[in-house]
Design a protein that fits this description.
With 125 residues, this protein is of the alpha+beta class. Helix content is 24%, strand content 30%. The termini are far apart. The protein contains two helices and six strands, in the order E-E-E-E-E-E-H-H. A six-stranded antiparallel β-sheet has the order 1-6-2-3-4-5, with no helix packed on it. The protein is elongated and about 75 Å long.
Length: 125
């Protein structure tokens, strides 16, 4: 969906119950590739309607998607985006991010707790 939505943005969406999608709305929907057990959530813009559902396309593409999105597959309608906030979870999923955001703070907390238990003199409080 670049340039409208980048990989580092977070999308805030309303459920479909709060309104019906209209032409030009950006929706998130479940797309089923091989089987119906493992859907992929895709966010694209509505560019048309058909009797079976909605025609969508990503903003970076010139051609609409080859499939029709059924109304029951829609997860939500985008209401706003929060720029750059999505970069944090992406960074946290890397090995550097895991070390910096999880392991180092955990070691600091554990060390601090051990220090307070033993009162620096080796005796329990």
């Amino acid at each position: 969906m670049e340039p409208t939505i980048t990989a580092s943005d977070i999308v805030v969406a309303n459920t479909v119950d709060s309104g019906s999608p209209e032409l030009g709305d950006i929706i998130s929907y479940c797309h089923y590739l091989e089987d119906r057990d493992n859907p992929v959530v895709i966010t694209h813009r509505i560019v048309g309607f058909s009797k079976d559902g909605y025609r969508t396309k990503g903003d970076a593409y010139d051609v609409a998607d080859s499939y029709v999105v059924k109304p029951e597959d829609i997860v939500g309608i985008m209401r706003l985006k929060i720029p750059y906030l999505g970069g944090l979870p992406r960074f946290a999923s890397t090995s550097k991010g895991l070390i910096m955001l999880v392991i180092i703070p955990a070691v600091i907390v554990i060390t601090s707790e051990i220090y307070s238990i033993f009162d620096c003199g080796g005796t329990l409080k």
